[in-house]
Write a structure and sequence with these properties.
about 425 residues; mainly alpha; Cytochrome Bc1 Complex, Chain D, domain 2; 2 domains; two-stranded antiparallel sheet; two-stranded antiparallel ribbon; about 65% helix; binds heme C
Length: about 425
C-alpha cells in the first residue's frame, strides 16, 4: 500500500509556523488590555468635581462623554454609591490573562522550541538549550517575587521604589545580556516586565476588586492597604506598557537589538517610553509638558548617533557606485555588488536566509530583507557565527566576507 501522499512525516517547522499564529491572539488581547486600562486612565483624568449635592452622594468626579453618536455619563465614586447596585460590571481582566498566556505560549513556540538558535549565543555564554530555557522560566518566576516583595516593602515611598525598580530593570538587562544573544535578551526583558504587569492584575487588582465589592456588601470599608496597593500597581502598569511594547517589537529594531550596545540602547528607549507615557497622562490632566517629547527626541537622536555602525555610510555609497556603473541595468548592480552576490550564492547563505535580490527564500535564519543590518554587523555575524548560524571564518576570506556583507547591506529590502 502506498501511503506516500499522506503527510506521515510531519514537518515540525511548518507546524511551528502555524502555532505562531497565536501571535495574532496575543496582539489582539494586548490591545484590549492596554486599551481598556488607558481608557480608564483617560476618564479618570478628565473627571470634573460634582456639585454639593453630588459630593454629598459620595461622587468624586463626573463628566459627559460624546462617543458613537450618543452621550455617556461617567461618574466615579470612591467607595461606591450608597446602596450596592445590582449588576455591577467588573473591569474585564481576561484580556490581561489572555495576553500573558498567549505570550508565554509564543515564548515556548518561538524561543524555547529553538532555544539553541534564538536564545543561546555561544559568543555570549556557551550554555545548552535546556539551561537557557530553565534560566528564562526562573527569571520570570523570581522576577515577580522580587518585584512584588520590594513593592510591598516600600509601599508609601513611591519615588524611592520607582528608582529601585529602574535599577532592577537595568541590572536585569545587563545580566541577561551576559546569558543570551541580544534577541533573547530583549524578549526576555519584555517577558519579565510583562509578567509584572499581568501579575499585578491577577494578584492585586482582581483581589482588590473582590474586597471592595465585599466591603460594599457588608457596609464596611476596604482595607486601606489594598486601596494603596492597587493605586501603586496601577501607576507601575501605566508606565511599563510602552517600554514592554518596545521590547516585544524589539527584533524589528535590529539597529538597537543587534547593535553592540543592545542592552543599554533598550534601557534608554524604555526610559523614553515611560517619559512619553507621563507626558500623555499630564496632558490629559490639562498640563502640556513639551520639554518631555522634545527631550525624548533629543535622546533618540543621541542614541542613534551612538549606535550608528562606523561603516554604515558605505552601503549607499556602494549602491551609488553601482548605479553609475554603465554596464548595469538596476541600481546597486556594480562589480562589487556582483562579487558579493556570488559569495552569497556559493557560500549557501540563501539556504537559511530570505533575500529578494538573491532570489533566496530560506527560513532557518532571519529574513535579511527585513532586518537590514549595517555591513559591519554582517561581517561580524558571518565571521563568528551566531546561534545556529555557522562561522564562515575558515570557509571565506576576509575580503569575501566584507564583500558579501557590503552586498547584503546594500540590497536588503530592495
Ligand atoms: C545553517 C543556516 C545558515 C546559513 C548557511 C547562514 N546563516 Fe545567517 N543566520 C542563521 C541563523 C539561524 C541566524 C540567527 C541567529 C540568531 O540570531 O541567534 C543567522 C543570522 C544572520 C545574521 C544576523 C541577523 C540579525 O538579525 O542579527 C546575518 C547578517 C546573517 N545571518 C547573514 C548570513 C550570510 C551573509 C550568510 C552566508 C555567508 C549566512 N548568514 C549563512 C542561519 C544561517
Amino acid at each position: 500500500m502506498n501511503l506516500s501522499h499522506l503527510p506521515l512525516a510531519i514537518d515540525f517547522d511548518y507546524v511551528r509556523d502555524w502555532l505562531g499564529v497565536v501571535r495574532w491572539l496575543h496582539v489582539m488581547a494586548a490591545i484590549m488590555w492596554v486599551g481598556i486600562t488607558a481608557y480608564f486612565v483617560l476618564v479618570d483624568n478628565a473627571l470634573e468635581p460634582p456639585d454639593a449635592e453630588g459630593r454629598a452622594d459620595g461622587i468624586e468626579g463626573q463628566r459627559y462623554w460624546l462617543h458613537g453618536g450618543g452621550f455617556y455619563f461617567m461618574r466615579r465614586y470612591d467607595t461606591g454609591p450608597k446602596e450596592l447596585p445590582p449588576n455591577v460590571a467588573w473591569h474585564p481582566q481576561t484580556y490581561a490573562y489572555t495576553t500573558w498566556v498567549s505570550g508565554f505560549a509564543l515564548l515556548i513556540i518561538v524561543y524555547y522550541w529553538k532555544a539553541g538558535t534564538y536564545l543561546v549565543d555561544p559568543n555570549v555564554a556557551d550554555i545548552s538549550a535546556g539551561v537557557a530555557v530553565l534560566i528564562s522560566v526562573a527569571v520570570l518566576a523570581l522576577g515577580w517575587l522580587v518585584y512584588d516583595g520590594i513593592s510591598r516593602l516600600l509601599a508609601g515611598r513611591e519615588a524611592l521604589l520607582g528608582v529601585i525598580l529602574v535599577i532592577i530593570i537595568i541590572a536585569s538587562a545587563f545580566g541577561l545580556s551576559h546569558v543570551y544573544g541580544s534577541r533573547g535578551m530583549v524578549i526576555q526583558l519584555g517577558a519579565l516586565l510583562g509578567t509584572w504587569m499581568a501579575g499585578n492584575v491577577l494578584l492585586v487588582f482582581q483581589p482588590a476588586h473582590r474586597r471592595q465589592y465585599a466591603a460594599k456588601q457588608n457596609h464596611t470599608k476596604m482595607d486601606p492597604v489594598w486601596v494603596h496597593r492597587s493605586r501603586q500597581r496601577g501607576a507601575h502598569n501605566t508606565f511599563l506598557a510602552l517600554p514592554v511594547l518596545f521590547a516585544m517589537l524589539g527584533i524589528h529594531f535590529s539597529f538597537v537589538s543587534g547593535s553592540p550596545h543592545a542592552w543599554q540602547g533598550l534601557i534608554i528607549i524604555m526610559l523614553v517610553g515611560a517619559a512619553l507615557r507621563y507626558f500623555f497622562v499630564r496632558r490629559q490632566q490639562g498640563r502640556v509638558l513639551w520639554a518631555i517629547p522634545v527631550g525624548a527626541l533629543a535622546v533618540c537622536v543621541a542614541l542613534a548617533l551612538w549606535l550608528a555602525p562606523p561603516s554604515a555610510p558605505q552601503a549607499p555609497a556602494l549602491a551609488k557606485a553601482g548605479a553609475t556603473d554603465g554596464s548595469s541595468q538596476t541600481p546597486g548592480d556594480g562589480a562589487a555588488v556582483a562579487a558579493g552576490r556570488r559569495v552569497f550564492a556559493t557560500a549557501g547563505c540563501g539556504s537559511c536566509h530570505t533575500l529578494a535580490d538573491a532570489h533566496s527564500s530560506g527560513t532557518v535564519g532571519p529574513n535579511l530583507d527585513q532586518v537590514k543590518l549595517a555591513p559591519q554587523l554582517v561581517v561580524q555575524r558571518v565571521t563568528d557565527g551566531i546561534g545556529a548560524m555557522p562561522s564562515f571564518k575558515s570557509q571565506l576570506s576576509p575580503q569575501e566576507i566584507q564583500s558579501v556583507a557590503d552586498y547584503v547591506a546594500s540590497v536588503a529590502g530592495h
